[in-house]
Design a protein that fits this description.
By secondary structure, the chain is of the alpha+beta class. The chain folds into 2 domains: 1-43; 71-162, Pdz3 Domain. The chain has 3 helices and 8 strands, in the order H-E-H-E-E-H-E-E-E-E-E. The strands form 2 sheets. Strands 1, 2, 3, 4, 5 and 8 form a 6-stranded antiparallel beta sheet that branches. The protein has a two-stranded antiparallel sheet with strand order 6-7. It is rod-shaped and about 125 Å long.
């Protein structure tokens, strides 16, 4: 029986030592955290931290936007082929072709449809929009490099939607505000 009591006592001592170590570790962690928090809090209030200065914003030039006519549509010239009929007539990238021989260029009547009504060698008048003004150019159609019987002006373009930019009438009591 004495041997059994001795073994039980050893087991309880081992358990007590392990529990004591675990409790002391937990208490040490809590106490260390609390002391670290208190010390850190005291230092922050006494030592100002300089804030970084904001980076300078780059100055980006804004593009010049031409005045927009009341009614806008047509074919925006994206590229003018060198030595093409368009280049010889003075057409430039950024021009908007508004009409061919006084017939408006619209989404319903695109530039290609207007040009296809003519034959290579015929002269046409283009009304264009450039730099806030409309101008007239005369152009002699060339032969399409892919189909010699088809007319060609030598540009790449994108049709622009027909937009009406006239200001809308404002309702009474809605002065100066827009939605």
């Amino acid at each position: 029986m004495a041997a059994e009591n001795k073994n039980n006592t050893k087991a309880w001592i081992i358990v007590a030592v392990i529990l004591g170590l675990l409790v002391s570790c937990a208490l040490g962690a809590v106490a260390g955290g609390a002391i670290g928090y208190a010390v850190g809090k005291g230092r922050v209030s006494r030592v100002p931290v300089p804030l970084p200065s904001p980076a300078p914003e780059p100055q980006i030039p804004l593009p010049q936007v031409p005045e927009i006519p009341e009614s806008w549509g047509g074919a925006l010239v994206l590229r003018v082929e060198p030595d093409s009929p368009a280049a010889k007539a003075g057409l430039q990238v950024g021009d908007v072709i508004l009409a061919v021989d006084d017939e408006p260029v619209t989404m319903e009547a695109p530039l290609a449809d207007h040009i296809q009504r003519y034959k290579p060698g015929e002269r046409i008048r283009l009304r264009i929009y450039r730099g806030g003004r409309t101008r007239e150019l005369t152009l002699t159609l060339g032969q399409n490099p892919d189909q010699s019987d088809m007319p060609w002006i030598g540009i790449r373009y994108r049709m622009m939607p027909d937009l009406d930019w006239r200001p809308m009438p404002q309702a009474p009591g809605n002065r100066g505000r827009s939605s």
